[in-house]
Amino acid sequence: MSSLFPALVGASWTTAALAQVRSAPRPQLERTNYAGRTVSLGGGIAAATGVLASTLAATQDSRVRAAAGLAVATAGGLGALDDLTEQPQDSGTKGLKGHLRALAQGRVTTGAAKLLGITAASAVAGCLIASARGGSARGRVLDAVTSAGLIAGTANLVNLLDLRPGRALKVTAAAAAPLAMAAGAAGGTAAGVLGTSLAAAPSDLAETTMLGDTGANALGAALGVALATHRSRELRLGVLALTVAATLASERISFSRVIAENTVLHRIDRFGVRAP
């Protein structure tokens, strides 16, 4: 299957959903961003809709399609739960440590529910992907664990990057572009991520919409599926190691500060963003 088709599916569904957001604004979706501007979480809903549609169009393998659909729908759905129902007392609970600490205290935050739900869905998706790939029993177990880690890890990592306009979309597009040239489900899924990211970018950069957890988690999970279905085991293990390292680093290091202090990264980060 050509990668062009899922890319067009992702872009068209995202564009249509964004048009609906513009034509029928919903006050309950409005949030204030880092610069004090009013933005709509409808951008995240549109991106989640587009990337879900594209992942389902990316392959004809029923097990991989089920894995992708489960991972992306769960990530986007639980992201929406976090976006729309987070309690005021939980707003300061951030990072893996924060949510796990809250659980240890008997308090289930929406972030913790998202963390556990995405992990569980990623585990099931990983098993389906490993089953579709085949191989020895020991190889399938390793494959399932690696795939689950990639899906859950990238869903979380893309969400961590969504702190400034366009940042998460630039990263997902940059990661998906070379993957889109791969054969099979990996290329098709990555192409869908790329098409969705490009379609969602203009309004995100203009600071009229934002991805929120809904869009960032869904795009990250889809990118994880693309990586998990790639034929190169070395690539899968290498990216998983980088994802784990970046996630652990995020507990101690501010990505925004690192980007702001690096001239090249800062220019890339600000490229296309609405002027102050």
UniProtKB/TrEMBL annotation:
Superkingdom of the source species: Bacteria
UniProtKB keywords: Signal
Residues annotated as signal peptide: 1-19
The protein's name: UDP-N-acetylmuramyl pentapeptide phosphotransferase/UDP-N-acetylglucosamine-1-phosphate transferase
